[in-house]
């Protein structure tokens, strides 16, 4: 996983710098998200892994599927990726691009997994506390997972706060086995 991140980083930084210079961060984020979804499709992934296909063929397929301007920045970016056989890195590039964009905008995506649905009041109070702790705007995404038994698990980038009953039971079991 770290290897993919390392390979994708220069492309994500270059795409981000270009998009920022063109004042097109939102457009690039949307296009990278769409492209990531396309390359994740099994038939496209198989095509991208075909060594018999030339980089020009690979980039033209992606450009055609995504219906991007053949002379625009997106097309050039896809051509560079294809020339270096890095089109399969698009999901990782997209994730890193989004992280750079969030850092610029001083916002962070936070995933809150709870055992039960959170009310709007609970979500808003959680956002307020996280905003104070992280000193960034919070984009919260909630989902439920009944296997947690109770409590919540909060993920914000590298930060993970496990306040679930299942997590506490696992910690207790580890302590007893030590």
Automatic annotation (TrEMBL):
Known function: F(1)F(0) ATP synthase produces ATP from ADP in the presence of a proton or sodium gradient. F-type ATPases consist of two structural domains, F(1) containing the extramembraneous catalytic core and F(0) containing the membrane proton channel, linked together by a central stalk and a peripheral stalk. During catalysis, ATP synthesis in the catalytic domain of F(1) is coupled via a rotary mechanism of the central stalk subunits to proton translocation. This protein is part of the stalk that links CF(0) to CF(1). It either transmits conformational changes from CF(0) to CF(1) or is implicated in proton conduction.
Protein name in UniProt: ATP synthase subunit delta
Keywords linked to the UniProt accession: ATP synthesis, Cell membrane, CF(1), Hydrogen ion transport, Ion transport, Membrane, Transport
Superkingdom classification of source: Bacteria
Keyword RNA-binding: no
Record's subcellular location: Cell membrane; Membrane
Family: Belongs to the ATPase delta chain family.
Mode of membrane association: Peripheral membrane protein
Molecular function GO labels: proton-transporting ATP synthase activity, rotational mechanism
HAMAP family per UniProt: ATP_synth_delta_bact (MF_01416)
Cellular component GO terms, alphabetical: plasma membrane; proton-transporting ATP synthase complex
Gene3D superfamilies, A to Z: N-terminal domain of the delta subunit of the F1F0-ATP synthase
């Amino acid at each position: 996983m770290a290897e993919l991140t390392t390979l994708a980083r220069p492309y994500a930084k270059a795409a981000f710098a270009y998009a920022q210079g063109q004042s097109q961060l939102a457009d690039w984020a949307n296009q990278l998200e769409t492209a990531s979804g396309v390359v994740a499709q099994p038939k496209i992934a198989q095509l991208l892994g075909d060594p018999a296909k030339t980089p020009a063929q690979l980039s033209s397929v992606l450009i055609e599927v995504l219906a991007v301007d053949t002379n625009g920045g997106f097309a050039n970016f896809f051509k560079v990726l294809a020339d270096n056989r890095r089109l399969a890195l698009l999901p990782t590039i997209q994730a890193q691009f989004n992280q750079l964009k969030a850092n610029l905008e001083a916002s962070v995506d936070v995933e809150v997994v709870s055992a039960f649905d959170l009310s709007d009041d609970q979500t808003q109070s959680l956002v307020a506390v996280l905003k104070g702790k992280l000193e960034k705007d919070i984009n919260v995404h909630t989902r439920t997972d009944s296997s947690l038994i109770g409590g919540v698990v909060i993920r914000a980038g590298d930060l993970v706060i496990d306040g679930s009953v299942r997590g506490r039971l696992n910690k207790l079991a580890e302590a007893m086995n030590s």
